[in-house]
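Entry 14. Structure prediction run on the chain below.
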Amino acid sequence: MEIVYVSHWRFPSEKTMSPLIMKTCEGFARSGHEVELLVPWRRNPAFHGVDPFSHHGIEKNFRIRRIPVIDLLGVFPGSSSFYILLASFNVSAFFSVAFRRRALLYFHDARDAALISFLRRPMTLEIHDFYKSRIEALNRFVFRRISGFIVTNRIKVEALKNDFSIPVFRMLHQPNAVDIDMFSIDISQREAREKLSLPLDKKIVLYTGHLFGWKGVQTLFDAHQFLNEDEILYFVGGTDEDIEKFKIKSEKLKVKNIVIAGRRPHAEIPMWLRAADILVLPNTSKDEASRVETSPVKLFEYMASGRPIIASDLPSIRNIVDDSMVFFAEADIPSSFARAIHTAFADPKETDQRVERGSREVQKYSWEKRNAAILEFVRSLGFPTKP
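Output returned:
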């Protein structure tokens, strides 16, 4: 089967969605399908000359095809430039697939399907960020033409069914996934710390990922005041702008137990997770994307790493784990995160048991199982899935 994955994202990118999309393409191609990732030709100065396959650790078994767009974001950053890019990408993508009648068209953003949906071709849409937009009519127009939906948590399944009357048989509940082998590395904590030049005599509490507000990182930052002298918060990841803001704030407050490590190569993250004593997922409850919509890839990576996890007690997180696998803290309350951290340190036996249960649970969320489930779902909709 020919599969064309259509996405306006940058490749490579510092964003989680880029490797996630490429992993999906890799999995489809490994199953013997002819896969093309159709993307805009965008300015990408931070990754100039960088091969997306090498950067994200993806097997080069599918094609990335870049098509022309109007990209003004580097000159005039803002929503207007973004929507110009999106509109021009819709036009280019439409003409790129118009005569490929046998291809399954695959999307992760309804906006990318706005114009292509007029073709009335077999189309599958992954629902990651919330499906509602400022233009409600656009969603309703596109959704009527989508053959099947891959929905990353049950909350959104119910919302699609109730708000858009999408029948259950057209939806597959399929959370995000993780490369389990990549994150369950065979190296001791001491070795990992030595390789990363991290202190051997401190308790390291680690957050990896972006420093966006809805990620709840400010709550974790503020938790530093409740930690003991031998406990250090490490932040790994973020855009250059956000990293600089956090560094300035840390220096201004003269914080001694926070380290802003900056953005690190994706291939290095498993080493950081192994080096840590505790991993934190501090999502905020003040944003719907965080509270109910996300299927956090970070959580799966944490679980696969075999380290204790402190997580915000939110519906989106409980959709994946429960109290037997992680320690929950009250979202947006720094002292609650500090208490959960100290609880995990104080009871090593209970902590190890939760880690073990989480390690078993994450086996359900491998990329191999995710892609196989999606292809089986596509077959159930009447599309051929044999190579």
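The chain has 16 helices and 13 strands.
Filed with the rest of this week's runs.
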